[in-house]
């Protein structure tokens, strides 16, 4: 793992999420090394030769830069997402504590904060998170199959660790959401997942289809070839045949809605018809 300390010129950027808002990313790159990560597109701008998941740039001055930017009223009443193209609680956070320092700057600023993570390291900052008036934590939680999780998210927290973190946060009154995405063929079971999310106190779930653009499937394909050769052909058919893709995710949408009804966890679905756009809602 190549760790490099860098200086940043800005701390807050525009967020590309459907609802808009702003984003803060304390790191460039991510040690979780998720094979399916959409954020690998960042390499186009960073000139890193290392594979995605094998480098992290630490934006060491981001708390100071953020403090200056928050003197503006520009972000008041807006939503700021922490960790849109990196995990703010990856392993480097244990040493650098940039995410905690960012939260310390934001705690009294009149904005909504949403933290996106796969890591139970977030519990370290529970004392600070509880001081926010408007904050939520969104955990990626797309499978209960630990073998699959470990192979496509090799350095992330286990399913059990995430569920434990969700429960502790929700028990303390923090709004906890779950991203059931990407929604995997074979490895995502909404019925079983929502049962666990209900016990963990999750208030709302989101789901998205697998993003096949760029090189996102390359690492997943290697995992399938090595460990799940019997599933490889079908997985590729679903992801790269637009008709099969559509049919699979129409069925997946219904399964999610059924799970919502059974466990009373509202779900927002962002499924795409291959490369052509979002399913009509």
Walk me through the topology.
Blueprint: E1 2-6, E2 12-14, E3 22-24, E4 27-28, H1 43-46, E5 55-59, H2 62-69, E6 79-82, H3 92-96, H4 98-106, E7 112-117, H5 126-129, E8 135-140, H6 146-152, H7 159-171, E9 175-180, H8 190-199, E10 204-208, H9 216-227, H10 229-240, H11 242-263, E11 267-270
Number of helices: 11
Q: Report strand order across the widest sheet.
A: 2-3-6-7-8-9-10-11
Tell me how many strands there are. Answer: 11
Helix fraction, binned, reads 25-40%
Main beta sheet strand tally, sense and closure: 8 strands, mixed
Q: Write down the secondary-structure element order.
A: EEEEHEHEHHEHEHHEHEHHHE
Supply Rg.
19 Å
What proportion of the residues form beta strands (DSSP E)? 15-25%
Structural descriptors:
8-stranded mixed beta sheet, 11 helices, globular, 281 residues, alpha/beta, 3-stranded mixed beta sheet
Question: If you had to describe this structure to a student in words, what would you say it looks like?
Answer:
With 281 residues, this protein is an alpha/beta fold. 38% of the residues lie in helices and 17% in strands. The protein has 11 helices and 11 strands. The strands form 2 sheets. Strands 2-3-6-7-8-9-10-11 form an 8-stranded mixed β-sheet. The chain has a 3-stranded mixed β-sheet with strand order 1-5-4, with no helix packed on it. A hairpin with a 7-residue loop joins strand 2 and strand 3. Helix 9 (216-227) runs antiparallel to helix 10. Mean pLDDT is 93; it is low at 274-281.
